[in-house]
Amino acid sequence: MTVVPRLVLSAPSSGHGKNALAIGLLAAFADRDVQVAGFKLGPDRVDAAYLGLAAGRPGRTLDPLLVGADRLAPLVAHGAAGAGLAVIQGSMGLYDSVTGRPEHDSAAAVATALRSPVVLVVDVAATGQSVAALVHGFRSFDEQLWLGGVILTRVASSRHETMLREALDDIGVPVYGALRRQDLPGVLPDRRHGVVPAFDGSGEASRAVRRLGEAVAATVDLERLLGLARSAPPLPAVAWSPAEALAGAVSPADRPLVALAGAPGGSYSTPETAELLRAAGAEVVTLDPLRDEALPPGTRALIVGGALPESYAEQLSANRRLCIAVAELARTGRPVIAEGAGMLWLARELDGLPMCGVLDAVGASRDGLVIGYREATARTTSVVASEGAVVVGHKEHRAVLTPRAGQRPAWSWEGGSAEGFVWRNVHASQLALHWAGHPEIASRLVAAAAEPLPETVSAGPGGVPA
Q1: For 415, left (φ over 0), alpha (ψ -120 to 50), or beta?
Q2: Distance separating alpha carbons of residues 464 and 331, to the nearest angstrom
Q3: Could you tell me the pTM of the whole model?
Q4: Which of 32, 341, 366, 394 is most deeply buried (CB count within 10 A of its CB)?
Q5: Could you tell me the CA-to-CA distances from 313 to 10, 37, 197, 297, 345 in Å, in that order?
Q6: Torsion over CA of 359, 361, 364 and 368, rounded to 10 degrees?
Q7: What is the DSSP-derived secondary structure letter of residue 251?
Q8: How far apart, in whole angstroms, are the C-alpha atoms of residue 189 and residue 198?
Q9: Helices (DSSP H) in 87-202: which residue ranges?
Q10: pLDDT (tens digit per residue) in 413-431
Q11: How many CB atoms are closer than 10 A to CB 199?
C-alpha cells in the first residue's frame, strides 16, 4: 500500500477543457512548491509531455490495454514517488471507451481501480440549472464511482456562476472552481508539433504552461482541491520497480551504451523505457535526431520511440550526417528499434525527402489518420520479441510505407496484412509498445547490444545494400 494524494480529472466528453485545466493545476501547485506528478490515461504522449513540463518531472501515460490493468496502481505509485499530489487526466468522457469496454478502460473504471476521487470538468457555456441533472447523472450512473466535485469552465458571468453553484449545492456537489470563457486560452503549441515543444524547452510551451497555471490559481480553490486529493486512501499496490519487473534477467558484464531518441526534456519513448534499460544494465544517453549530427561515442544500440512527430520530416532528412551514422550502425548489426515515425526515418525516403536508407521502402503522407490498438503477433524473432509472441500496441500515423513489410515482417494482426521490418538487428514498425507492459524487451535489447559485432555480410532483402 502506498500513500499518494491524487485525483482523476475527467469530463462528460471531449472539449470541456480538462487538458488545459490539468496542465494549469499542475503548474499552479508546482508554483506553490507542492511536488506534483502528471499522468494521462490512454496512449497520448503529447498530453503527457505537457503534464510533465508543468510538473517538472516526466509525464506518464496510463493505459490498461498497453500495460495491463494490474499495473496501473503500481505505475502511479512509482511515477508519483515523493509527490504531494498526482493529477490523472482522463481521455474522452468519464464513461467512454474506445474498445467498447467502459467497465475496463474508461476513466471511471480506472478511477475506481485506483480508489481516486474524480473531479468532473464541465463546460457550462450553454447550461443553467440543468447542470445539476447532468452532474447527478454522472454521479449516480456508477455507484462505485467517487465523484468528489466539479470545476466549471466557460462560465458567462458572476450571475451565471451563482446560478450554477446554487443548483449544484442543492444536490450536494462541491464546486472547486469556476473559470470564465477567456480563462483557459488556447495557448498551447499546435498539436502537429507533437511533444517537441514540451521536450526542447521552447519559450512558447513554457509560457503557455505558466499562463494556464496563473489562470487556474486565480479561479480554483487549490487548498480544498488538495484536501480532496489527500482524502484518497493508500493505493492498493506497492510501487512498480523496473528492477523487479526484470527479475531473473542477467545483466551483461559491461554497460553497453544505448542511445534513446528524444530531446533534453524527455525521450520519444515512455519514461519507463529508460528506467528498464538502466535496470537491465545499459547506460542510456539521449540523442536528438533533429539537432545532433552524430551518435553518442560508443553507441551500441539505438531506440526511436513512437512519439517522434511525423511533421519533422524535413529536419530529419536535412540531418544527413546523423542519417549516415544510423545507417552504418544498422549495417554493422547493432540493435535498432524504431517505432511510429521512427520507421519512416529509417526508410529510403519520405515524401520525396531522403531519409536514413536502412529499409528498402518509401514513405508517403496521406490525409487520413490511422489510429487504434492492435493485438499483434510477432512474425519474426527479433530484439523485440520471439516469433509467435503476442503483444498489444498502438498505432497513430498519417504516412505509410511501400512496401508495408519486408521479407521478414515484424508483426501481423487480424484483419491486416503483415507489417514492419526485421533486418539483422533492426526492428521497425509503426506499432508502438509500452515497455512497462513488456519489460522483457529491455533485457533482449541490452543483451544484443552487449554482444560482439557480427561478421559483415551482404544486405538482406529487407535492407538497403551496403
Answers
A1: left
A2: 9
A3: 0.94
A4: 341
A5: 34, 32, 16, 25, 8
A6: -90
A7: P
A8: 9
A9: 102-105, 107-113, 131-141, 158-170, 196-199
A10: 998 899 999 999 999 999 9
A11: 22
Please give the single-letter amino acid code of residue 106: S
State how far the Cα of 33 lies from the Cα of 226, in Å rounded to an integer: 13
Cell numbers at 275, concatenated = 528506467
Rounded Cα gap, residues 52 and 106, in angstroms: 22
Strand, helix or coil for residue 370: strand
312: closest CA among 270, 358, 262? 262
pLDDT tens digits for 349-379? 999 999 999 999 999 999 999 999 999 999 9
Nearest to 186, CA basis, from 163, 153, 224: 153
- Rounded CA gap, 440 and 376, in Å? 16
Q: How many angstroms separate the first and last alpha carbons of the chain?
A: 55
Tell me the C-alpha distance between 46 and 198, whole Å: 8
CB-facing half-sphere around the CA of 218: CA atoms within 13 A: 11
Tell me the backbone φ, ψ of residue 273, rounded to 5 degrees: -60, -50
Grid coordinates in use for 243? 528492477
